[in-house]
Amino acid sequence: MARITLSNLAHSYFADPKGEADFALKQMDHVWEDGGAYALLGSSGCGKTTLLNIISGLVRPSQGRVLFGDRDVTDAATSDRNIAQVFQFPVVYDTMTVRDNLAFPLRNRGMDPAYVASRVAQIARMIGMEAELGRKARGLTADAKQKISLGRGMVREDVNAILFDEPLTVIDPHMKWELRTQLKSLHREFGHTMIYVTHDQTEALTFADRVVVMYDGRVVQTGTPQDLFDTPEHTFVGYFIGSPGMNLLEAAVEGNRATVAGVSLPLGAAYGTPRGHVQIGIRPEFVSLTAAEGLPVTIRRIEDVGRHRIVRADFNGTEINAVVEEGTTLSPDMTRLVFAPERIGVYADDWRVSPQGRQPGRAA
Amino acid sequence: MDKTPNQKAWFLVLPVLVLVAFSAVVPLMTVVNYSVQDTFGDNEFFWAGLEWFEEMLGSDRLWNALGRQVMFSAIVLAIQVPLGIFIALNMPKKGFWASVCLVLMSLPLLIPFNVVGTIWQIFGRVDIGLLGHTLAVLGLDYNYTSDAFDAWATIIVMDVWHWTSLIALLCYAGLQSIPQAYYQAAKIDQASRWKVFRYIELPKMRGVLLIAVLLRFMDSFMIYTEPFVVTGGGPGNATTFLSIDLVKMAVGQFDLGPAAAFSIMYFLVILLVSWVFYTVMTNIDKEEVR
User: Fold this and answer.
1) Which of A264, A325, B52, B149 is deepest in the core (most CB within 10 A)?
2) Can you tell me the distance from the alpha carbon of A146 to that of A87, in angstroms, rounded to the nearest whole number?
3) Which residue of B has its CA nearest to A103?
């Protein structure tokens, strides 16, 4: 096991990339600490799989180095890296039994048969397929096949890291939850570095200690689920994390006041005079409805989602959402929105502006 | 909804019945008709029962031709199947060279059978053929018109040249359908090249390989045109395969009765072997699922 360092890394699928737009992964430096449980979160096509394949050696980066501990493995073959990886769609060896499938990675490394047998039994119990061990893998359901794939990923104890590339896409919701819990306990037990790619924020937030958010070939923020919720470093993190996501409004910011379409709002801190495309962001959880003060809006509809209600409002053509806790009374004359000042974030060209006029903090 | 019984629908099947009757049943029955009768000319026929069948089964001629035929099919399959798989594995997967390879591989399949025969007949001639003359210059005693072994070698090489592409192309199509993730997973699992072939490529090619082997078996078992053009069944009877012998008997000697009996047995052998082959393969498939 080792710390994985990506140094000055970038990748383009073109042989001769012209500009930044040709890069699937923009230049980045990133460190995956040994034993961390990471979720790699981002929309489809943002470079998550590319990043994973670079770590496992299936793709060689166009530039930069990959280090395991102090060892440079950029040019090392996948087999030399001792990495386990589980893919989005099930990969099983059809003609083998479930048992042989699980044992395959161990046997290929010449492990002792007694050890292989005990380890396979252990993994089979974990994925709940003890009864099917003697069956051929062909003809099993997609669910079962993906469980085998997961099992093959976890069967080696000495791996440097286990990479999961949206492994639960084909699994039904109940099993999804169960397997996620299994992965989590596996992580606690063995302390492998795990990187879990997903575009499902619930999956990311429940699995990981640290969430890495990618957007357009870049890592835009790394942090705990709480960090991502409280201080999104990028507007993408703001609206991708949270349900519904953060409200973003075009604004002019001057010191500790923001002006949104002629309405002046207090901010929690002073921000100087940010340049570029300036927006303010506020999570729906910190927006409340009043009758007297705040932004005048038109209420479009109210959705009751059980534990709370979501108010969809319209302000000059921009949608603003507010989350209203259970038990709060709403009346028809409450058509103004108030933002909690200390919860408002200021963004210039999509990046968060730190208070007291410090330069935008780009997350590494 | 009420269903009205309407037996007239059966008439819709009529065109197919007529077509099958004229294309298969009637010609086959003609052959059956000849096989159980004898004639002394003048279009007068006498009932002969199973005499022709008994005669053919008792003659060495049929058994020798059958033996040569089985050996030919076995050799041809034993060379073409592994070679075809090997070529398919080594063809480029995409890009310009993939297209070039596909065109080159398809070429032999597009050449008419008698042209293939003619090409190799000339190619192998010792006096003017590129192959035959080169071998002669190199000091090899090669002559497919007088030496049985040379005749066999020529016909087998010709058939390999003509038909290996079919197996290669079918396998190539099978290989192309394997998702990239399988190869990636194999790398992660540290599978050797042999294991990738054994556990990923071969199982995925299985369906097409079954069809390829079946097609090649039937075709090679019924081969006629090419050896007829190259060797005419010679030297002696060395390359007289079943269909060549059949034509000699039916058209050359005009022995319609024995030839008809021969045809029917020939047909039954192919039917039987194909059926056994197909059943065995599909049963293996079912067992794997269980």
Assistant:
1) B52
2) 9
3) B189
What is the torsional sign of CA A201, A203, A204, A209? positive
| Range from A269-283, A326-340, B71-85 carrying the lowest mean pLDDT | A326-340
Rounded Cα–Cα distance for residues A267 and A256 (Å): 5
Distance CA A52, CA B184 (A): 12
Note the Cα A34 to chain centre separation in Å.
Answer: 18
Determine the Cα–Cα distance for residues A271 and B262; give it in Å rounded to an integer: 100
* Under 8 Å between Cβ of A179 and A203: no
Among the partner-chain residues B179, B182, B189, the one whose CB lies closest to the CB of A105 is B189
Summarize pLDDT for B97-147 with one digit per residue, the tens.
Answer: 999 999 999 999 999 988 988 998 889 888 888 888 888 888 888 888 888
Q: Indicate the pLDDT class of residue B286, thresholds 50, 70 and 90.
A: low
Phi, psi of A218 (to 5 degrees): -130, 150
pTM (2 d.p.): 0.76
pLDDT of B159 > 60? The answer is: yes
Average pLDDT over every residue of B199-204: 90
One-letter identity of residue A121: A
The C-alpha angle with vertex A268 and arms to A266 and A272, in degrees rounded to 5, equals 80
Inform me whether the pLDDT recorded for B288 exceeds 60.
Answer: no
Question: CA angle, A318 as apex, A315 and A324 as ends, to 5°?
Answer: 65
Nearest to A95 among B184, B192, B288 (CB): B288
Q: Give the pLDDT band (50/70/90) at residue A363.
A: very low
CB contact at 8 A, A302 and A310 = yes
Q: Which two tokens stand for residue A63?
A: 């530039």
Interface touch A83/B188, C-beta < 8 Å: yes
pLDDT of residue B285: 64
- Judged by CB atoms closer than 8 Å, whether chains meet at B199 and A87 is answered as no
Cβ contacts of B277-281, under 8 Å, gap ≥ 24: B277/B213, B277/B214, B277/B217, B278/B210, B278/B214, B281/B210
pLDDT tens per residue, range A301-352: 888 888 888 999 888 888 899 998 877 778 888 888 888 888 888 898 888 8
What is the model's pLDDT at position A1? 60
* Rounded mean pLDDT, B235-248: 83
Question: B185 and A104: CB-CB below 8 Å?
Answer: no
Shortest Cα distance, chain B CAs vs residue A139, angstroms? 6
How distant is the Cα of A328 from the closest Cα of chain B, in angstroms? 51
Q: Are A209 and A191 in contact (CB under 8 A)?
A: no
With contact defined as beta carbons under 8 Å apart, do A211 and A37 qualify? no
Is residue A281 exposed (0-12), middle (13-18) or buried (19+ Cβ within 10 Å)?
Answer: buried
Distance CA A91, CA B200 (A): 10
Contact B259, B249 (CB under 8 A): yes
Q: Residue A224: what are its φ and ψ, rounded to 5°?
A: -75, 160
pLDDT at position A252 over 60: yes
A261: left (phi > 0), else alpha (psi -120 to 50), else beta? Answer: left
Which positions in chain B touch A108 (Cβ < 8 Å)?
A: 189-192, 195
